[in-house]
Amino acid sequence: MAFQGWPEAALDFFEGLEADNSRSYWTAHKATYDELVLGPMTELTDELGAEFGPVKIFRPYRDIRFSADKSPYRTEIGATVGSAYIRLSAGGLAAGNGMFHLAADQLSRYRQAVADDVSGGELDRIAGAITGQGISLIGHEILKSAPRGYPADHPRIELLRHKGLVAFIEWPVEPWLAAPAARDHLAEFLVTTEPLADWLDTHVGSPEDGESRRR
Questions:
Q1: N or C: which end of the chain has fewer CB within 10 A?
Q2: Is residue 27 a contact partner of residue 20, using CB atoms and an 8 Å limit?
Q3: Cβ–Cβ < 8 Å for 91, 80
Q4: Rounded CA gap, 136 and 131, in Å?
Q5: What phi and psi values does residue 54 have, to the nearest 5 degrees?
Q6: Nearby residues of 25 by Cβ (< 8 Å), 6 or more positions away
Q7: Smallest Cα–Cα separation from 97: which of 199, 206, 208, 203?
Q8: For residue range 21-64, what is the model confidence (pLDDT) as tens digits?
Q9: Which domains does the chain have, with CATH numbers?
Q10: Phi, psi of 60 (to 5 degrees)
Q11: Residue 176 and residue 155: Cα distance in Å, rounded?
């Protein structure tokens, strides 16, 4: 079945889960989750995956083993499509694409590539095109000053200060969320941010320990 959007009842489900994050609520409303939350996400990611890459939908259960918050259920549904992340919650829809946290070896390669006039200039143009579309650039951490070994007046100092780089956007609840247009918004975001993901793949790559840092 083709993706038709998420109905209002899907957002109501998450509002209820935020208020009552319990097994009893989950059991009573699991059919709603399966049909109106997970179902549309599966349809959406199947459609996007054909163009943008492998898909993974995350389980609704939180890992509470080492968390002070023992709430058992996620109050959102998340999925990855290729290098990008998609999230639906009661507050609306969000998407990110890039590398949120850079391991030490990745960070070293990132800074070298940003400092280089050719590769750094390319990233600067990519970043400008992305932010020009109203999309933010965020990361795990952004230094308040220049990283050690780089001048404070470097022409790309803002990019050098990042310790992760992700294009990120949040859409509040709008009528189009309940329509196929939601797919179009996400597809446009993925096309716009794909050059950033490609640049990071080329110049930063995976961490040496093999752990994925993509977000």
A1: N
A2: no
A3: no
A4: 6
A5: -55, 150
A6: 16, 17
A7: 199
A8: 999 999 999 999 999 999 999 999 999 999 999 999 999 999 88
A9: 8-203 (3.30.930)
A10: -80, 0
A11: 40
Q: Name every residue whose Cβ is closer than 8 Å to that of residue 162 and which is 6 or more positions away in sequence.
A: 110, 137, 139, 141, 142, 143
Burial code (b: 16+ CB inside 10 Å, e: under 16) for 174-205 equals: eeebbeeebbebbbebbebbbbbbebbeebbe
Read off the amino acid at residue 143. L
Residue listed under structure tokens 């996620």: 74
Residue 133: how many other CB atoms lie within 10 Å: 12
Helix (H, G, I), strand (E, B) or coil at 210: coil
- Decide: 21 and 71 in contact? Cβ < 8 Å: yes
The predicted pLDDT at position 167 comes to: 98
Please give the single-letter amino acid code of residue 135: I
| Size of the chain, expressed as the number of residues it contains | 215
Q: Which amino acid is at 37?
A: V
